[in-house]
Design brief:
Elements (H helix, E strand, L loop, with lengths): L10 H11 L2 E2 L7 E4 L16 E4 L23 E3 L10 E8 L4 H13 L13 H8 L14 E9 L7 E2 L1 H13 L10 E7 L4 E2 L6 E7 L2 H4 L4 E6 L6 H4 L24 H19 L6 E3 L29 E4 L4 E2 L1 E2 L5 E2 L4 E3 L4 E3 L6
Parallel strand pairs: 5-6, 5-8, 7-9, 8-11
Antiparallel strand pairs: 1-10, 2-6, 3-13, 4-12, 10-11, 13-14, 15-16, 17-18
């Protein structure tokens, strides 16, 4: 049942319930801001592609947060249905980045390189398997007119909240207030149709349910808080708070200690940010295919939808499941990845549920 089917008197309560439960499951200061406008110009590569690599399928201990939504493998029994709502089909998808807290320039560049890799279709710039090929699965989802999720993604603007305008402990509601600051102070336009407002919190910021129940979430803003209904997502840097939960498999639970397999080496040598990127990919895929929580999801309960990323959580390659993450690549320096991006970047991204294959799919599939 969609939100629209409820009586108007119950709508505010239902929206709040959905809002408080919706996310990627695993688990006061002065207002000072800076703004910049992003470009898509390229700069020299910061990472050299290795000529020697090997495929492997490591078996790792489960992360500490529940993965009850994960579906390992393909099935006609997964009832992923379209609920008649919009998808982000207009090109390009404009991402408005909000950097909350203190971020190193190298970390910002790494995340932006990932986002811009979604539209980097030139195989000379991003060899196969690529981020753009990974997003191709997301673009298979359509709205009621038959329009597909756009394959064009740009970083349309950036906003830096350097002094933690709402403190270093955010709630789900105060996350929306941070977005409201960015919209009301005019660095960002009100982009109902093509915009995604992506708020990223630094490793010293706690967020409601972070590490305990979620690593990221997406929803839409409440007009009462922001003035508009805008699709948004939040993802936090777990590098110091819970890497074994939200940066898995680049960190593993402490109880594994010296026994069993070790954590995988992140492709860009930053456990927190490399872990964030897979969560960002998860949330963007779901936001593009279900921006108002009334489009593509499994189940009949909109307060707890199972979306296209949830169905493949923890799977990164062929042969995944039963504790195995799937076939991924390890370069000569030991760094683990499964897709290539622009400027020589490499990333480890979870697979996405394909409506065509009715299975989890990724560009690094071996079969």
């Amino acid at each position: 049942m969609s939100v629209a089917h409820f009586k108007s008197s119950l709508l505010p309560l239902l929206l709040l319930v959905i809002f408080l439960h919706h996310g990627t499951n695993v688990v006061a200061s002065t207002n000072s801001t800076t703004t910049t406008t992003a470009t898509t110009t390229t700069s020299p590569s910061v990472q050299t592609l290795s000529t020697k690599a090997e495929y492997f399928n490591p078996k790792l201990p489960p992360r500490t947060l529940s993965t009850s939504k994960k579906f390992e493998g393909s099935s006609d029994l997964v009832n992923l249905r379209y609920h008649m709502g919009p998808v982000l089909s207009s090109a390009p998808i404009n991402i408005y980045l909000i950097w909350y807290g203190k971020w190193a320039a190298a970390q910002k560049l790494l995340i932006k390189d990932f986002l811009l890799s979604i539209s980097t279709t030139d195989r000379r710039a991003a060899p196969s398997p690529s981020v753009a090929e990974w997003w191709r699965t997301v673009s298979l989802y359509t709205d009621q007119t038959g329009a597909n999720v756009s394959r064009s993604v740009v970083v349309a603007g950036e906003y830096a909240d350097l002094r933690y305008s709402h403190g270093n402990a955010l709630t789900r509601l105060s996350v929306q207030q941070v977005i409201a600051n960015a919209v009301r102070s005019a660095p960002f336009p009100v982009d109902h149709k093509q915009g995604i407002y992506l708020i990223l919190t630094s490793q010293d910021v706690t967020v409601q349910d972070f590490c305990r129940a979620v690593c990221g979430f997406h929803y839409f803003t409440f007009p009462s808080l922001v003035g508009y209904t805008l699709p948004y997502a939040w993802v936090g840097n777990s590098g110091k708070q819970c890497p074994e939960v939200c940066a898995y498999p680049f960190a593993i639970p402490g109880y594994m200690g010296g026994g069993g397999p070790g954590a995988l080496s992140p492709p860009n040598r930053d456990v927190g940010v490399d872990g964030m990127i897979s969560v960002i990919g998860h949330e963007l895929a779901e936001l593009a295919s279900n921006p108002l929580v009334n489009a593509w999801y499994a189940g009949e309960d909109p307060t707890a939808p199972t979306e296209i990323g949830d169905l493949c959580e923890g799977l990164y390659g062929t042969g995944g499941g039963g504790g195995y993450i799937g076939q991924v690549t390890r370069d000569r320096d030991g760094r683990t990845f499964n897709v290539n991006g622009r400027r020589g970047r490499r990333f480890l991204l979870q697979w996405i549920w394909s409506p065509v294959l009715k299975a989890c799919a990724g560009p690094n599939a071996m079969d």
